[in-house]
Design brief:
Number of strands: 6
CATH class of the largest domain: Alpha Beta
Strand content: 5-15%
Helix content: 40-55%
Number of domains: 2
CATH topology of the largest domain: Dna Topoisomerase Vi A Subunit, Chain: A, domain 2
CATH architecture of the largest domain: 3-Layer(aba) Sandwich
Number of helices: 8
Strand order of the largest sheet: 4-3-5-6
Oligomer: single chain
Distance between the termini: 67 Å
Order of helices and strands: HHHEEHEHEHEHEH
Mean pLDDT: 90
Structural class: alpha/beta
Low-confidence stretches: none
Radius of gyration: 21 Å
């Protein structure tokens, strides 16, 4: 038997379904909703419904869009000869936030995940087939693979590289290294390895 009345228990369970939200956090969120003014709760509910109804995938790169091409694909100043392959839209947005003369100015392709057999995610669950269709464009010169340096990210990068190599494209992997202000003594082995492999001449 639950310690909470049914409507509250259902609300807690719904919050728990969100990634990274455990039981205690779900309870805090549920109590916060109950303690809020009804108008604010209705605004929150409306925002959820509107987001689900109005946010779609860009038909070209699979970034988030309100319909049709996303703002990146619509940007005529973007370099159409290079595509950066990312795991999700959050990474795309992070790269787009980088400012400066040498910032990335090409297009993207969002996979919406990585290959993870333990989670039941194979290549067919990702936007890999769509990527292969895009790279047939004769204007394209380079594909940058920017998946995370995790086991799953590496497996996905290797799988995509194997598919793209026969097409004669330049394929590069995003370099990973020591963060600014980082301490080498406390840096993990994988990061150190990438830092050494990605070293450049001074």
């Amino acid at each position: 038997m639950s310690e909470f009345i049914p409507p509250l228990e259902i609300l807690i369970e719904q919050f728990q379904r969100l990634p990274g939200i455990g039981r205690k956090t779900a309870q805090r969120l549920a109590f916060s909703i109950i303690d809020s003014e009804e108008e604010k709760v209705l605004q929150f509910a409306e925002a959820l419904v509107n987001a689900k109804k109005n946010i779609h995938y860009c038909p070209s790169c699979y970034n988030f869009s309100e319909g049709g091409l996303c703002s990146v694909c619509r940007n005529s100043e973007k370099d159409k000869t290079v595509i950066c392959v990312v795991e999700d839209a959050k990474v795309l947005m992070a790269i787009e936030r980088v400012k400066g003369a040498n910032r990335y100015n090409g297009l993207y392709h969002v996979l919406h995940g990585v290959i993870s057999p333990l989670d039941g995610i194979g290549p067919e669950q990702l936007k890999i087939k769509e990527l292969l269709e895009r790279v047939a464009d004769p204007e394209l010169k380079e594909v940058i693979i920017a998946t995370n340096p995790s086991v799953e990210g590496e497996a996905t990068a290797m799988y995509i590289t194997k598919l793209l190599k026969p097409m004669g494209l330049k394929i590069t992997r995003l370099a990973f290294g020591i963060p600014a202000g980082g301490d080498l003594e406390y840096t993990d082995d994988m990061t150190l390895l990438y830092a050494l492999q990605g070293r450049r001449e001074l």
